[in-house]
Amino acid sequence: MQMFFRSFLLCIYSRTPNTKTRIVQDAYSQIEHVDQVASNVIGANGTFRTIPETVHYNPSKRTPPFFQVLHDDFLNIIGSNPTLTVISSDPSFAFAHEAPVWVLDRERNTNDIFFASNAGGLLGRSGIDQNNQVSRISMKVVDEAMRLAGRGKDVNVTYDKIDLPESVQMTNGGTGLYEGKIILMNEGRGHRPSNMVFMDPYPPYNVIVALDNFYGRQFNSLNDVKVFERDTIYFTDVPYGYYQHFKPEPQLPSQVYSFNPRTGAVRVVADGLNKPNGIAFSANYERAYVTDTGVLLGSGTDRTLPATIYQYDMDIISNSFINKRVFAYADSAAQMVSMWINMGMCMLAAPTVFTYGTPPVSSSESSSSANNLPILSSRIRAVW
């Protein structure tokens, strides 16, 4: 499945139950089924994609936005008649780039999404002299705005910047909740170290620094994070802060780590990756998934380097990652930053990649600088 849309915060919206249904196309449908057999031969006089980051796989030549479905199983997720809806927009600022965390608290009557702006990248308004920002948007306000606007109509809901202490610099990854706290992964900036912090999801958003070194050595630029069966936190470290000129030269290999906050133990669980980025686990915690964005050099790309999702088995004794194999290759050669594994399916989100499917996984790309957020309800399926 592929999705094509502009760079904003988006919702997948569907009135239909998530049961597989073959769609009868109509003038308003945002679903496009691809006949892969008919697309397998282009020919000597045809047009090939030489710049996959911007020229997307679109054999139907359909105008975005739309869902490109390569396998009907994807309809189990999006329903039979979904729409893409912009819910917040600022074309001058990549305000919703990373670290999506959904916090629904029925006792407090809150329903919020937290996210971070682009740290050091295009339209990020951040770098060696300026921190990026963490923000919050109320899905209660979004729901009401979408109700008033009507199905499929874009809205522009205001988001709130969160004031955080000096210890939180260039936030890149996020997950939660862990013991009631949001986990934020911060790349650091200049002499300020990269770290993992636990943030209270309610004002005044108190922060505790949980980890900022590997046996006395600074991490490069902590990237993405997931919690494994409530006890252990797994995260990736890759020197994008150095590539984007707001961190010193890397001092450690690019690796995947585990961290137990109760015992303080931190260890390497996977290496041999060019630029480990997004991380996720299967629903039964028997498999791990790590994206390698070696293709991205900080500024520019090298399309001969990995843009690959790797699957691992979890070693039941050490909880290390073993038996590495390719799960999928993202043909758009774009950054994959976060993943969710659910119902045997894999969903990735990134500035220019969204992949969702059962093996064989179908890759996709878009031009979005906003990132995927968790499934929210039966009506709002997902948010970017």
From TrEMBL:
UniProt-listed Pfam families: SGL
All residue ranges annotated as the SMP-30/Gluconolactonase/LRE-like region domain in the record: 211-331
Gene3D superfamilies: TolB, C-terminal domain
Name by which UniProt lists this protein: SMP-30/Gluconolactonase/LRE-like region domain-containing protein
Protein species of origin: Collybiopsis confluens
